[in-house]
Amino acid sequence: xxxxxxxxxxxxxxxxxxxxxxxxxxxxxxxxxxxxxxxxxxxxxxxxxxxxxxxxxxxxxxxxxxxxxxxxxxxxxxxxxxxxxxxxxxxxxxxxxxxxxxxxxxxxxxxxxxxxxxxxxxxxxxxxxxxxxxxxxxxxxxxxxxxxxxxxxxxxxxxxxxxxxxxxxxxxxxxxxxxxxxxxxxxxxxxxxxxxxxxxxxxxxxxxxxxxxxxxxxxxxxxxx
Amino acid sequence: xxxxxxxxxxxxxxxxxxxxxxxxxxxxxxxxxxxxxxxxxxxxxxxxxxxxxxxxxxxxxxxxxxxxxxxxxxxxxxxxxxxxxxxxxxxxxxxxxxxxxxxxxxxxxxxxxxxxxxxxxxxxxxxxxxxxxxxxxxxxxxxxxxxxxxxxxxxxxxxxxxxxxxxxxxxxxxxxxxxxxxxxxxxxxxxxxxxxxxxxxxxxxxxxxxxxxxxxxxxxxxxxxxxxxxxxxxxxxxxxxxxxxxxxxxxxxxxxxxxxxxxxxxxxxx
Amino acid sequence: xxxxxxxxxxxxxxxxxxxxxxxxxxxxxxxxxxxxxxxxxxxxxxxxxxxxxxxxxxxxxxxxxxxxxxxxxxxxxxxxxxxxxxxxxxxxxxxxxxxxxxxxxxxxxxxxxxxxxxxxxxxxxxxxxxxxxxxxxxxxxxxxxxxxxxxxxxxxxxxxxxxxxxxxxxxxxxxxxxxxxxxxxxxxxxxxxxxxxxxxxxxxxxxxxxxxxxxxxxxxxxxxxxxxx
Lengths: 225, 270, 229
Fold this sequence. Notes:
The structure holds three protein chains of three kinds. By secondary structure, chain B is an alpha/beta fold. Chain B has helices at 2-22, 35-40, 42-54, 65-74, 85-92, 126-136, 148-159, 177-187, 195-200, 234-244, 247-255, 258-261, and strands spanning 28-34, 57-63, 79-82, 100-112, 140-142, 170-172, 191-194, 206-210, 216-223, 267-268. Chain B is built from twelve helices and ten strands. Chain C has helices at residues 2-10, 14-47, 53-64, 68-79, 94-130, 135-145, 147-163, 166-172, 182-191, 195-227. The longest helix of chain C is centred in the middle third of the chain and has 37 residues, at 94-130. The interface between B and C is medium-sized, with 24 and 19 residues.
């Protein structure tokens, strides 16, 4: 179990995230929703270890294998296959496994393409394959399908579900689409201005949100979707 | 009120602009001289007195002898003050009825390391000194910039039939006297310099030979002729040339350097 | 004059070739040494967040703006007979000119390298952290990703070095056959009123500069095209 206690993240005097208490249970799937700047990325980066909270404690990550897909993943200037295989550096079957992962995200035709020439959506799918090619205890994904086109969305989400099933990992992902959270998560967390406003089972939160702010967000989203 | 003040200002500016146009531009004399002359400090010393006496303004530029003389050809000077007889004669031979007027002289000196490995001190002529330097392979730094000093140096080498170019002990800087002295000081080598620049320059070299016949250095002025450039300031150039002949000027030239170095750096021609 | 300039350029005047030779020897050496110093320096600054990064950045920027004559003056005073390294008798030699140029060019390469690296480093760092790649491996990957832009910064350093005149005159002395380079020769010839050789050298210098700048431009364009294909 991952636990956050009195966690505060400040940048230049401004509080961007404040979580008095939060727990992530093993094997469960959590979706973070909220506007830009609500703190989703900050929370994920703290869990990934690329950012340290200004104060507070995060427990339960020691010794765990944590995989993380950042919001802007980097596409290295070698082939797509090598970009994915680099996560399995040293293993004899690295290329084989990389190939399989790329098929799972629908990129088998681009296996030999140069990483730096990919479109935004292709680079993102490749980066996802790079993360999924290994088994992790905790998988952190920051807006993993923000550039994915409608055609590939089904495939990606199916692949993710299969991965989580197989590895029994704790999945924590953020998304701009509450509908996606609904499809993929067991529990949904709504963040606003750096605070956790409401948390609950996906169906429940959507159909009967308790907090006014959550209601406003979901209403706004459904009007615009 | 504001509008009125603005009008007055504009009218005032226009009037003064008109007034400016009427003043003769020929109050300015453009003089082209060499870096040695400039480095010696003589012009800075003579300039204020000449300007007060004559009412003219002197704008002095300095460059290597070649470039200094070239300014006469490009119209960038009204008067030349240089010290390279051969190059001067070429210039006045270009058919514009110009003359060179020698007005003062001094001597080059041979300077070098205090321990004088080539035994220059005590030689009777510069030629003998140069021979000693060549024979002993002692390091010699040349200006190599076709200046008056360099021309003199080349003439001395020619007189003993020695071509130092490319020899290991001979280095050519292509620079002015000051820079060349700095290099000679750094390498503790021999060089030939005009006395004024040497005395004014801070270094640890010793003066080893001076006032031999073959080291006389003559300074001349050449006024650019209106036949070369119609709007050259011929009157101004002549004013300076005339002023050089006055007792004031001659006295100043004779006294330059005495207080500071105990001896005159320049001598008037009779 | 044009005829004489052309004769000098194509007649392979030995002194012209010699001057170009000394220039290239000096510039290639100073550029290489500056790259060896500047690239690691720039990578260190661009790849990570660390305490004192801001100060190091400030220092680098200040050094980038160091006036060439000041660099020349400092090196001159250090190398002259009466200076701390006077015993080495380095003044008025090609090594002295190289030293002055390295002082000038390393910060420039460092600054450019830092910019190049810090453009890519955040994304590379996050990506690598996400798949468990850290430390030297991550650094090496970062350097490899930046290798082409590094080339442009080195070329820019080279362009700077052949164009340098002030510092190189001061510590080199423009000595014929030894430390006379294109820039100091142009100055000297102009001072002497001898414009043909100056113009010929100027043309050679322009051609070299033009080639270097074109290469830089081509590489940058190619990189841009690759990334947005």
